[in-house]
């Protein structure tokens, strides 16, 4: 979602720096099942957790909303996902199909796989995890609905998972942060600061877990990008960021994105970033 807008939930949509000094759309691109579905996942009971101590579950009592970018079925509903929805600062498509690798591995499939891995790891740390969808809806949800699901859950943090669709040679990951927006239904003023803390923690943790470098094709290379044109961020009332895990059009990034072993590392990075943000009490204002 930032240097090459692709298709979006396969093409439907950052100051402190920690360790680091296309096509594109509502999935954050600059213009280029194991089934909880949308329901809350309650943490296991103490006995089921094998007598874990509170220190082993730093996210106990926290609610995390995970938004798998795009939807594998969006491609079958072009008319419905192309309808306009209000994002406060203007109108955007309900959703898009997202991008894909040259061999056809869809972003929507990648984000669902990663979301399941993230959910598993977050639960192990005691969190309650909710999805915006689990690939079981005919399309979408629309970008405004994705934001509303986080709001309704009163989430401690929300994250939208994506992969970019920039030109080959454009490599790396980046985190998209909400700009300060106050227009129409959009008002991010209360979440800008905590979302930036969240994004910085996420960037540092994702780098540490995967060894990936921040994107070399946007901004100043610090892995953070601020956007005011994404409904998923504009309409959020809870700390929220988008994560672009890599570029699905670059062969070297694709080798990672298509690797189950790498996706497990990526899930660890996401989970570590969320833990660093929430366990340190840097969440809701």
UniProtKB/TrEMBL annotation:
CDD domains: MurNAc-LAA (cd02696). Residues 15-89 are annotated as: Disordered. Pfam families: Amidase_3. Residues 147-275 form the MurNAc-LAA domain. Keywords: Hydrolase. Residues 38-48 have a biased composition (Low complexity). Residues 27-37 have a biased composition (Basic and acidic residues). Coiled coil: none annotated. One of its GO terms (cellular component) is outer membrane-bounded periplasmic space. SMART domains: Ami_3. It comes from the Bacteria. GO terms for molecular function: N-acetylmuramoyl-L-alanine amidase activity. One of its GO terms (biological process) is peptidoglycan catabolic process. This is N-acetylmuramoyl-L-alanine amidase.
